[in-house]
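ingest -> validate -> predict -> emit
validate: passed (alphabet ok, no gaps, 231 aa)
predict: started
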Amino acid sequence: MTDPMPDKSDRAVLSIDIGGSHVKIRSSAGGEEKKVESGKAMTGEGMVEAVKAMAAGLSYDVIAMGYPGPVVHNRPLREPVNLGEGWVGFDYAGAFGCPVRIVNDALMQAIGSYNGGRMLFLGLGTGLGAAMIVENVAQPMEIAHLPYRKGKTYEHYVGEAYREKKGNKVWRKRVFDVVERLTAALQPDEVVIGGGNVEKLDTLPEKCRRGDNALAFEGGFRLWKDAALVV
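emit:
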């Protein structure tokens, strides 16, 4: 890390993408993506230690972190479902020794995918991540837990457990229906479908394009470098 703090456009950003199976990092200053296994035993403190070990030798001034859960005012609200405990209330900036910006992981990938206008991002994986960006104003969305049909949520019908139980054909039908409903309600110019399970879709609904999980890193870089972005 360097001191004093460079101008916004010159800052080297370490982008951290936290998932239930891996924690991945990449620096805007260059270098390859690095990752380490996460899982139920990984705490907030354990994540910091793992990232510091992976980032040894990398150049960075600030950190952007995509967190697998709701985040408000740069603070995780709930412990992650697929990781250990000790994430809420943890002093990440103090532990890393530099400024840290934290957003929901779906929002970070949405920011990295954004090309302007009104964009809805949907992340298909274990569950359903969602975010919307309207004219550079980025907003995470807890759409996943809204009621959809038969007393179940959107996430129930488009998540991985439902796909495994019902098969790809039925799951794809539900994904298309959910996208159609959300598009009608939110009126985006385009929908970006990301997450690991986008690869299970042979075709995409109208007005949709495929996301790329690697764009989460770009979203982290933009959190610090894009002066037009409002989060």
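DSSP finds seven helices and 14 strands in the chain.
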